[in-house]
Amino acid sequence: MSSRIPKSDLQLLKDLEDHLFLLGNHLRDFFERDIVYYKSISTELRLLVTESRSNVPLLLSLMRKYDVIPGLRKWLEKELKKEVILMRQKCSIQEIIRDISEQIGSAHEDFKVKPHIAAAEGIHILGLPSYICLLYT
Known about the structure:
Elements: H1 9-32, H2 38-49, H3 58-65, H4 72-81, E1 83-86, E2 89-92, H5 93-104, H6 115-121, E3 124-125, E4 128-129, H7 130-135
Antiparallel strand pairs: 1-2, 3-4
C-alpha cells in the first residue's frame, strides 16, 4: 500500500471551490430540470459537512482551521446536529444527509435502506419525498 501525500491548503481551498460550484449547479438543476439531482446534492453535502469514521468534512475542516467569519462554523455545526423526527426516528440533519447520500444518493446505491428513509420516500411534501425537503432546511 502506497503512502499518500497531503494536499496543500491552497489545493484544499481549490477543491472546496470546485465542490461549492458543483453544489450550486446541482441545486439549480434540481429546481430547473429534475428532482433526481438530490442524489448529487446529498453527496456534495456529505463531502462538505458530515463527519464519520471515513469522512473528514472539507468545508468544516477548513472552517476550523481558518475561522474567517467568527461564529459561523459553530452555528453551522449546531444546525447540522439539530435533531428532527423522520418517520418516528430521531435523526440529525448530518445523519439524514449521510443516509441519503450513502443509501440512495450518488455515494452509494445500497440494496437495503434504513426504515425511516424507506418510509419517508412514500410521504410527499409539495410533490417531493419528505427526506428531500430536509436537505433544504
